[in-house]
Amino acid sequence: MAAVQRTDSALRLNVHFHSLVLDGVYVHENDDPRSPLEFRELDTPTRTDIAEVAARTAARVEKLLRAHGKSLDPELVEDTPPELALDEPGLAACYAAAAQGLSVSGDRAGQPPLRLIASPDPPARPRAVDATDQPIAEVRGINIHAVQVVDGRDRRRVERLCKYITRPRRAGPPRAPRGRQARADVQEGVARRHASARVRAS
Length: 202
Description:
The protein is α+β, with helices and mostly antiparallel strands and about 200 residues long. The protein has one domain (about 1-75, about 120-200). The chain has 5 helices and 8 strands, in the order ββββαααβββααβ. It has helices at about 45-65, 85, 90-100, 155-165, 175-195, and strands at about 1-5, 15-20, 25-30, 35-40, 135-140, 140-145, 150, 200. The strands form 3 sheets. It has a 4-stranded antiparallel β-sheet, covered by helices on one side. A two-stranded antiparallel ribbon has the order 3-4. It has a two-stranded antiparallel ribbon with strand order 5-6. About 10% of the residues are buried.
């Protein structure tokens, strides 16, 4: 299951994907198609595994960009400033800082604002002591974070992940009952199909 998020938590433009995938495979016991399917967990992906996925994704994104005359390489991007930067340089600077998540004044001018982040739940799995062991990688601006793992029988955490990736594009609770029902349907579908599986979020 995947969902496209077009903004970050501060409603800045930041197109990214949230995916819930099975962290394993279903197999028939002894390759007998008459036997029931059993879920077999896969090993946790390594940083190298995730870096390979990020590299393939970056290559595909670059191919699409080139087809439209764009590039991820700063030296290949047109250096003509946008019209707003010429007409309203102060406003353009504020827009640029907001898009990058930087403060424009005060003690932290040019730096990201301080944020306090706390999770009400303990980690689903003990974190690796060495950060290099975690399934996190970035290649040419494409970053993948695949640390979160939840046992499929832990309904509360699966529900929390489903709610997180299907949250609305604005802050606050959803207003429309239809939106709540859509998320409930998604959660129920995941619960029915993979009740005993392990789910990895990225």
